[in-house]
Request: fold
Amino acid sequence: MDFPILDTQVYNHRLVYLDNAATTQKPRAVIETLTNYYLTLNSNIHRGAHYLAAQATERYEGVRRQVQAFINARSSNEIVFTRGTTESINLVASSFGRGFLKAGDEVIVSGMEHHSNIVPWQLACELAGASLRVIPFSDEGVLDLEAYRSLFTARTRIVACTHVSNTLGTINPVKEIVDIAHSHGVPVLIDGAQAVAHMKVDVQQIGCDFYCFSGHKMYAPMGVGVMYGREELLSQLPPYQGGGEMIKDVTFERTTYNELPFRFEAGTPSVGDVLGLGAAIDFMQEQGIEHIAHHEDELLHYATERLLTVPGMRLFGTAPHKAGVISFLIGEAHPYDVGTLLDKLGVAVRTGHHCTQPIMDRYGIPGTVRASFACYTTHDDVDALVAALNRIAPMLT
Ligand code: PMP
Reply:
């Protein structure tokens, strides 16, 4: 595996990069795809009559088909390129809200959502006069499905839930969550930001209506993401942003809109980044997604066991089904202090609320230290984290 940035030295230590839930590093093949795009192919897509425009368009549309196959969507019309998960969720919340939410309606979200799967729904609810209902979770970080079932009323319009919690690591039973919602005739959006790089995702098997993710958390460049929408529902949503590309005909009296998926891709997209996403999918498929999942699962168990030997260790998120994300505190030490001391030893972790303040409120803590894994994370990296924690632990108490 070739990740040039992982050779970086930090304060005379080997970089131990354990902030993969925030963003993954990029393999050389992805970086070269981006560079080659600007060296040889740069052109605005779809509307050009010239050679470069045709080539760039072909490659861009090729990645759309690649993403379709990657998540097993029925049609490439269901794949909309966005800037990332945040934009994907805002697109759905805004369009669905305008199309389907009315005063008194209800939206169900889980208590372990990232702010980007809470705030867009709050904005949509505010506009419509609708309200949010929240699925609670246990101390271990497991969603309470009985409570979830009881949240449905005749006014429930949509459910939005994360596939994997970026703070607790919990892998939620998304198929069951979708089945329960569908039994009430309610569509479901799944936030896949923390799932796609770590496990095989099959949107038809899950049965969800929308599935959102970011390229940069799956070895692709920043600036590109995906909104999968089931065609039947997507075709009923009003447009999100207006502008070039999303229209068929424009007059001052009346505008008609383009077909799917272009109707939701107003303006010039980030073409080079989309091609980079294609290279990242190639990379993951070469590694083998099952292989990556198995590797990270093994590391999770190894790291959990080793971390529990550190004096004062308090883990947050101990669900039986977890991805490679470990949130912890050392005694009463502030997470920021732990993170800063680890950084001086070359260990990169994230500290704070991880854009999940309701989770912190649930546990009554200000934040956590979070170590998160990717395909290139090694046992040596875990050992370096544990050694660094043992070294700083006496300074923290
Ligand atoms: N949802 C989850 C679960 C996440 O972990 C993140 C990123 N931390 C997001 C949404 C937002 O992703 P982005 O910032 O790439 O739009």
About this structure: DSSP finds 13 helices and 17 strands in the chain.
